[in-house]
Amino acid sequence: MFKIHKNVRRLTAIEKKQYQDLGYVKNLPVFSNEAATELHNFYEDLSKRMPKDININKTNMWHKASKKFHDLCRTPAILDYVEDILGPNFVQWGGQFFNKNPNDGSAVPWHQDAQYWPLNPTNAVTVWLAIYDTDIENGAMKVVAGSHKKGKGGYKHHINQADHLVLEQEVSTDQIDNENIVYIDLKAGEISLHNDGLLHGSDPNTSNRRRCGITMRFSPTNVKGDLKVWPFFETQLARGIDEYKLNPIAKIPQGEATPVKRFSFSKEFEKDW
After folding, report:
1. Whole-number percent of the chain with pLDDT over 70
2. Phi, psi dihedrals of residue 171, rounded to the nearest 5°
3. Which of 27, 31, 63, 261 fits a disulfide with 189 by CB distance 3.0 to 4.6 angstroms?
């Protein structure tokens, strides 16, 4: 689909230890520098399908709707990195875009993903694939290194409905260890991995450049979603075997449908394939 970077590899022992100790790794090569334009076109092609009144950042489940998106998530190099963290058997249950236009005033407050996700046990890896170069100026993700060690519920979240915030729940800044803040700068085609307990957020895009990335959510096959909280929770086997069969299965998309909300069953997209 896209040209793979010549330096694609597996995680080193140092990177595996960093993930365990700090909760993230970054600048992992996947797609070549020459693939940047193709990645831009990929985003433009899918985003132009969105209804004018729908913010693409408010949609999810693209891996269940779009064959192009699903196939991108099955890039062997991406799955190799994930396998080095989760082991040989894992599923995908989330996939979405995070876009910030030039001089976009929106921010993502400090939060833990695990706070939102009713998973048992709590165990998920997020892949963040840069579609465009991302840095401090255009609103790169920032993390608090090592914060995942407090686990789900280790930080107090409160409601903040300010217009400029993408999420309504946030961790107050007085709980943040500023000395451990790291910005996840990435070149287009690189990925980062982060733990679902890691505190992270992002600042507004103050540049004249777009910042856009794709997130892919993966968990080992022994993780069960609480259907009472998330009735739409479905998984697709990403690699290996699903020996536990704990969750409903999402169909593999056969064409191009467009999510218009955060949560959907895979069957909702079939009519558009």
Report:
1. 97
2. -95, 125
3. 31
pLDDT single digits (tens) 178-207: 999 999 999 999 999 999 999 999 999 999
Residue 107: count of CB within 10 angstroms of its CB: 19
The Cα–Cα gap between 105 and 139 comes to 10
Are 133 and 242 in contact, with CB atoms under 8 Å apart? no
β 181-183/200-202 pair status? unpaired
Instruction: Tell me whether residue 262 is in a domain.
Output: no
Q: Which residue in 28, 18, 84 sits closest to 218, CA to CA?
A: 84
Which candidate, 248, 63, 215, places its Cα nearest to that of 124?
Answer: 215
Q: What is the structure's pLDDT at 116?
A: 86
- Is the separation of the CB atoms in 10 and 18 below 8 Å? no
Task: Write out the residue range of the structural domain in which residue 161 sits.
Answer: 13-248
In a domain? residue 260: no
**Contact predicate 146/22, CB 8 Å:** yes
Residue (of 163, 190, 177) closest to 26 by Cα position: 190
Q: Please report whether residue 261 resides in a domain.
A: no
Domain of 115: which CATH number?
2.60.120.620
Give the pLDDT score at 164.
47
Q: Where are the alpha helices (DSSP H) in the chain?
A: 13-22, 36-47, 62-65, 67-73, 76-86
Q: Of 166, 177, 234, whose CA–CA distance to 201 is shortest? A: 166
Q: Is the pLDDT of residue 165 over 50?
A: no
Count of domains for the chain: 1
3-state secondary structure of 60: coil
Task: Kindly state whether residue 271 falls inside one of the protein's structural domains.
Answer: no
